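Exam review. A common question shows you a sequence with its structure tokens and asks you to describe the fold in words. Practice with the pair below. Do the first one on your own.
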Amino acid sequence: MNITKILHFTFIFLLGTFIINGQEIKIDTTYRPKTYDVQVRQFKSYLNQSTDIIFLGNSITARAHWNELLRLPNAKNRGISGDTTFGILERLNEITEGHPAKIFLLIGINDISRNFPDSAILANYESIMRRIGKESPNTKLYIETILPVNSSFGVYNNHYNKDQHILNINNGIKKLAQKHQVTLIDLYSQFLDEEERLNAIYTDEGLHLNEKGYEHWAKILEPYIAH
């Protein structure tokens, strides 16, 4: 889907109702994972430093011990399992108030699993970019494309068979990153197998990464961490 067309949709948010091209679509934008509130409170209790390197996202981010994986003492994990772009926007001030050195963002697969419109997800992405640029202008933001999934495992059916939506969002955020002069890291293409699925080497159930997946991700990030 062309990002120019997406961003010119009539986009109205009121109690979970979106008007897109004249069609009313209702989604639960208030959904938050069960652990969301307590984790946000925990994050707020931690010391913020301008040297922090923040890893922001959902369970795919949350499952890594980034300081150990990257041998980086100032790496901070701000992933929440089940989170969406709406959840990121709600808790973004906890991130930006510390004015971290870098933010690595990977988010959106749970939005797709919950059938949020592509245009809504991309509008949230743009809001995240704008807010970080305004609230923490010296922070370097790195947007990571959404990883592929592999339906052959048959575990996370709500996340499977939505490959075109993943491609739509990834194409959209590439253009948004260029528009807002944000660095984009294309994880998607580097985790594919020959059948355009998440490579089984890197996962045990078709959605989340295993230890080899995280090692591969860490190698991709090395040049962005170093500079």
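Now try the second one, then compare your answer with the model answer below.
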Amino acid sequence: MNKKNLITINDLSTLEILEILKTAKKLKKSPLSKKTALKDRTLALLFQKPSNRTRISFEVAMVHLGGYVLYLSPREIDMGKRESVKDVARVISRYVDGVVARVYSHQDVEALASYSDVPVINGLSDLEHPCQALSDIFTIQEKMGKLKGAVLAYVGDGNNVLNSLLLVCAKTGVNVKVATPKGYEPQKAILENALKFAKDNGSKIEVFNDAQEAVRESDVVYTDVWVSMGQEDERGKRLRDFENFQVNEKLMKCAKKDTLIMHCLPAHRGEEVTDVIDGKNSVIYDQAENRMHVQKAILLKLLGKR
């Protein structure tokens, strides 16, 4: 059986990314226009981590497309401990038409995809968060009317969200300026890969250890939490190391007056960001809503017409 997974942004060509954005735009205008497209299809949400946006947006998206959702919590499956990833994948794919996996280790979602007979979507791993990044560039396109030539400044930790943003921006012509403390830069292999795509698509990627330098002349300032799930033991050190990388009024004065503020949420106000995310330049709630529209487009691409 031929199937396509979405484990990393690299699973999508530039053309496929643009097609997803185009479909998402249509679906946002008419949310129930495809209400029977996935009739009788079932999507399993296999989650090792708690979730707000990822779970709700996928559940609502699947319902709007006429399908059914089965949520599998860590206590029910305990993948990799109670039962091997291989056995989970081979059994679940006998029951459902697709799987969204939200895992701690990227190796688990890769293994799940390799053993599954149905499409597997990465709902978050320690390496990438592709669904988030696709929604982010959809939001940028929606607000700015373009992607090519736009400048996104990412301030904070070189984490999974940044990894996916680097790849999706490089593939769609968005310029990226990254600002992290020393030692928290994006993964070298991801950065090198993104630089190749950027060269092919006429965009530019720069990495700084100075937040003010990164946000100058940016169209978007994006940040994420400093302490992700699973990094709680590093909290004290991280709060010290990221002290000068908070997105606040002082930092935003270095950007243009109309620069947008983005955050993938949940936000820790007073840490990586202040209440500037409640201001007129913030698009965080539109960004969150767009998860649903983009994920409808992803589901139609991977589960439709099979």
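Model answer, second protein: The mean pLDDT is 95. The first strand starts at residue 42 and ends at 47. Full marks require stating both points clearly.
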